[in-house]
Every structure is written in structure tokens, then in C-alpha cells.
Amino acid sequence: MAISDIAAYANMSSADVEAFGAELDRIRSDVEESLGAKDASYIRRAIVFQRTLDLAARLTIAGTRSKAGWIIGTSALAYAKSVENMELGHNISHGQWDWMNDPEIHSTSWEWDMVGPSSQWRYSHNYRHHVFSNVLGVDDDLGFGVLRVTRDQPWKREHLLQPLRNMLLALIFEWGIARHGYHSDRERADSEEAKDAVSQAMMAKIRRQVVKDYLVWPALSGRRWRRALGANVAANLLRNLWTYVVIFCGHFPDGVQQFTPESIEDETRAEWYLRQMLGAANFKAGPVLAFSSGNLCYQIEHHLFPDLPSNHYPQIGARVRELCGKYDLAYTTGSLPRQYLQTLRTIFRLALPDRPDPSRV
């Protein structure tokens, strides 16, 4: 059930919570003071790598005549799109690199390679999700409006279709994220003109993406346009599946908690930290898998410090885990397959009506 008193759930006194928050503030301060040329070089190298891989993949797809060449090119394109989506688009849009004051690598100017406008996603994700993480009725990311992921959400007959909805969402994940951001942005619009502007921005971005992926790139391949079209469809599909797995493994495995709206009344910064700690999960990853996931294998650290550069999450993670041991807090993590299978189990279980509680009979 959703938690209404977070400190009591964690068996922490008010003084403990504030001390916990002070230690996390110290971690933030240490990282901020260390930022410099090495970090700027990291993100610029990541951008060059992603763009070079994208171009090389497209040239391979257009130039090869073999099936193996097409598979290699398509796989490379899918990986390039995944890196752009998570290590670049997601993290840059969080403001992780705004401290560089580079107008090309800034949260207000970066437009990611997805059908949803970055600006609409930033409101639904950076504000509604990260500020109010896992708060029932406030955080729209709890099931993304299509899945029941906690028993605190009333069961409806339509939830019987949840396994099918989950599979469909995985396949078209970028469209689900776009829809999510669009509806959040329209909800905050205070006039019909503002709502129309949101719709127009959405349609303009969709046209841009569809034309780029399914008209321009195939046309540039000449007589091999069908191969290029198929590669773009496959690459987008693979990118959608990968980002879906990464995001779901960070939010819905066993051990991730949900919270009542009452739990955030008069919430202090330290209490916010504690809620982020309890409301996210990691999965174990080496350097390659971490980069491939946009370092979102460190989802706990990302929720604690969403605007700190992702290349610092491994070192932050070591300190956070030590801190959890000090305050006897659960640090929810596991292998990627384990976290995903737990998520699937939750989705399938909650598709069915809740069993009666014997203690209430």
C-alpha cells in the first residue's frame, strides 16, 4: 500500500532524516565543485560518437547488398538512436550540462530524435514526475495512464488487457512518451490558444520525424530505398524496446514504493530525498551497459540528483549505497533480467482483480 508517513516507514526520526539529507547535499556539493573540462569533454565525445555511428550505420545500410550488412547497419543505427535518446536527449534535457553555458548542449535548446517535442516532455518528466515521484494522483508516470502498477490504483475491467497494452507500449514507446508529454502540457495550458499551440508543436514534431525517417533517408538511398525504410522502422522499434526496458526496470520492480498525496505535505528537502530513494530502483551494469542505458541503471542516483551529469552516477552510487547502509535503508538493485521479470510479474498480477483480504472478512 502507498506510504503516508515516509520517515516512519523508514524507521527514521526527524533528526535522522535531516542528517541523511545533509549528507546527500554534501555529495551534490562535491560533484558540483568538481565539474570542469573533463566532464565537458565527456559529453562532447559522446555526441561525436553518436553522430559518427549514426552516419556510419546509414552508409552501411545504403551501401551493402548483403543481409548481414543490413543487420549490422540496422543494429548500429538502433544503438545510435538509443544513445541519442538516453545519454544525450534525456540527460541534456534534464539540465545536466547547462553549467557549461553551451547553447548547443543546453536543456532549453536540445531537441531529441523522438516524435514528442522535448519541451513537452520536460514538463511532464522533469516537473510532474521528478518533483512528485510516485505520488498517487500526481505523478503521471505511474503506469503512464495505461497500466495499473500498484494495488492503490483501483482495478477496472479494462486492466484485463494490461499484458497486451504493455506489449504495445513497448513497441511504440516513443509515441507513448509523446502522448504523455502532450496531455500534460495541454492540462497546464490556460487558454484555448495555448492548447492549440501545444497541439501544433506536437504535430510539427511528428511531421518532422516521419519525413526524416521514412521519406528523406529512404529517398537518399535511391534504388535501395526499401532497405533504408525497413532499417529505420527496425531501428526505431529496437530503440523503443530498449528504452522501455530501461525505464520500467528503474520504476516498477519489487521494492519500489508509492506514496499518498498526504506524504508530501510540508515536505522538506531531506524528506524529498528520502522519497526519491524509496521510489526508484537500479540494475547492475558495467561501463558499456551503463552508457547504453544513459546511465539510468543508476535510477536511484538519477532521482536524487536528476540535474547532475550522468557520468558521475557511478561514483555517486558508491557513496549513496554506503549512506543507505549507515541509515539502514533499502538500496533496491539487481540484474537487468531480474528487475525486468519482477516488473512483468507486477504488470501481469495487477491485470487481475485483487484477492479479498482474509483479515477483513
Report a brief summary of the structure.
With 361 residues, this protein is mainly α.
List its salient traits:
single chain, 361 residues, 14 helices, globular
Report on the architecture of this protein.
The protein is mainly alpha-helical and 361 residues long. The protein has 14 helices and no strands. It has helices spanning 6-9, 14-34, 37-63, 67-93, 118-129, 162-171, 173-188, 192-220, 225-251, 269-278, 287-292, 299-304, 313-326, 336-349. α2 packs antiparallel against α13 (313-326), α3 (37-63) packs antiparallel against α4 (67-93) and α5 crosses α7 (173-188). The chain is globular. It starts with 5 loop residues before the first helix and ends in a 12-residue tail after the last helix. The model has no long low-confidence stretch (mean pLDDT 95).
Strand and helix layout:
Blueprint (H helix, E strand, L loop, with lengths): L5 H4 L4 H21 L2 H27 L3 H27 L24 H12 L32 H10 L1 H16 L3 H29 L4 H27 L17 H10 L8 H6 L6 H6 L8 H14 L9 H14 L12
Helix pairs in contact: 2-10, 2-13, 3-4, 4-9, 5-7, 7-8, 8-9, 9-14
Roughly how many Å is the radius of gyration?
21 Å
Helix-strand sequence: HHHHHHHHHHHHHH
SS strand fraction: under 5%
Helix fraction, binned, reads 55-70%
Q: pLDDT below 50 for ≥5 consecutive residues: which ranges? A: none
Number of strands: 0
Largest sheet: none
**Please, how many helices?**
14
Rounded mean pLDDT is: 95
- Structural class label: mainly alpha
Principal-axis shape equals globular
